[in-house]
Request: fold
Amino acid sequence: MNFKRLGTIGAIAIAGTILLSSCAAATGSTDGEGTGSTLTGTLVGAGASSQQSAQEAWVAGFQTANENVTVEYDPIGSGGGRDTFIGGGSQFAGSDRAFKDEEIAEDNFASCVPGTGILEIPAYISPIAIIFNLDGVDSLNLDAATIAGIFNGSITNWNDAAIVSQNDGVELPDLGITAVHRADDSGTTANFTDYLSAAAPSVWTVGSIETWPTEFGGEGAPQTSGLVDAVTNGTGTIGYADASRAGDLGTVAVKVGDEYVPYSPEAAAAIVDASPFAEGRGETDFAVNLDRATDASGVYPVVLISYLIACNEYASSDSVDLVKGYLSYIISPEGQSTAADAAGSAPISSTLFDKAQAAVDAIK
Reply:
């Protein structure tokens, strides 16, 4: 990625965006002493809990630069965030999957001018860590078929031959596996099962889904924090979560081609840059079709792309300047660096930045 070289240019661009947005707001406050910002008001967002650490850092950075602005982000989960945005309860949403074609075609976005479409930016790119709690074991090597077997309930013990054969020298106990999944509709689940469906289709036969299939059993936990708590407080537990929340839990290196690849921001970013945008979308819709079954070296395929979603044209102009300012900050080199430091995410590429910034600038 050639993102760092954009630092100075990006900083100028975001400053210019905020200044122009502020000038456009004729009734805006000029009380932002020390920052030069005239942005005022409250901006409300809701959605993906995977973005929580990044959103906390983004909110802090943006509010520091804009003293008269309050940004509220409720990490209620991707499904809840999309529903809130559709209903007009928030000005923007965070979601671990883009809206589906049929959802966009319904054109039921209460905050948007009908027929003007939505903006979707993959602004948060992170590996999904497969996390486990097993005494004395910090890491494991697993291929896609074994991971799928664990989560569909067909592999039930930690000393199963499929696990032992991939982990020479690791002492695996005769202990039952408790597979923990998200109890709520989850974009993280959609991304995780999309990987299983693509990389182990003969084992994971239910496709890419947001709602966990009850026939597979396991233990359900709400939102990212609930899943991580369940894995942490259990024995012989395994789950999946945004890598920023892995903490001290054991993690899985995933087999890609002939090698086992541990998660990292760099490996996550590699698959995103190698994957195409979805076809048939609007000019401001940057949904990505990830190549989950790749065998490219150094690529980690269990990746979560979390989107920022906003209107191209708002029914009310009250929040337009705040939306443009906040989204511009998030996708800027400064904002992406802030998220990387806070959450271990991978900065978006310079090419995606240019496309996304042009789309944000065009919000009305």
